[in-house]
């Protein structure tokens, strides 16, 4: 199976901001994450990052995030060039 890399932005709901969501996702779904930018406040959080791994693992990891009501948006331009 092929390895893929995606640039995405995550928008966290209030109840997920203080949870170790990315840590659990990395451990559970065998993906590599490179955080490019993040902002967390009391009621809101967003993370811009790369996610890389086997296509099936990346899809499962993104489903994991969606199941936690985290919005996932693609980034079309690289954050750091």
Quick rundown:
This protein has 81 residues and is of the alpha+beta class. It has one domain: Alpha-Beta Plaits (2-Layer Sandwich), CATH 3.30.70.260. The protein is built from two helices and four strands.
Question: Helix and strand layout, with pairings?
Answer:
Blueprint: E1 3-12, H1 21-29, E2 32-40, E3 45-54, H2 55-67, E4 71-74
Helix pairs in contact: 1-2
Structural features, described:
The protein is α+β, with helices and mostly antiparallel strands and 81 residues long. It has one domain (3-69): ACT domain (Alpha-Beta Plaits, 2-Layer Sandwich). 27% of the residues lie in helices and 41% in strands. It is built from two helices and four strands; from the N terminus they run βαββαβ. Strands 2-3-1-4 form a four-stranded antiparallel beta sheet, covered by helices on one side. The longest helix has 13 residues, at 55-67. It is globular, with a radius of gyration of 12 Å. The termini are far apart.
Give the strand tally: 4
What's the helix count? 2
Order of helices and strands: EHEEHE
What do we call the CATH homologous superfamily? ACT domain
Instruction: Summarize model confidence as the mean pLDDT.
Output: 91
Top CATH class? Alpha Beta
Briefly note the structural class of the backbone: alpha+beta
How many individual domains? 1
Approximate strand percentage: 35-45%
Overall 3D geometry?
A: globular
The value of Rg in angstroms is 12 Å
Strand order of the biggest β-sheet: 2-3-1-4
What is the CATH topology classification name?
Alpha-Beta Plaits
| Quaternary | single chain
Task: Supply the CATH architecture.
Answer: 2-Layer Sandwich
Helix proportion range: 25-40%
Low-confidence sequence ranges: none
Q: Biggest sheet, open or closed, and with what strands and sense?
A: 4 strands, antiparallel
Instruction: Give the distance, in angstroms, between the N- and C-terminal Cα atoms.
Output: 28 Å
């Amino acid at each position: 199976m092929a390895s893929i890399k995606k640039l995405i932005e995550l928008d966290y709901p209030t109840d997920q901001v203080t949870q170790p969501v990315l840590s659990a996702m990395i451990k559970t779904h065998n993906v590599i994450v490179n955080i490019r930018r993040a902002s967390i406040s009391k009621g809101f959080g967003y993370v811009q990052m790369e996610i890389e791994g086997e296509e099936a693992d990346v899809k499962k990891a993104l489903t994991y995030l969606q199941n936690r009501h985290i919005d996932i948006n693609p980034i079309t331009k690289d954050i750091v060039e």
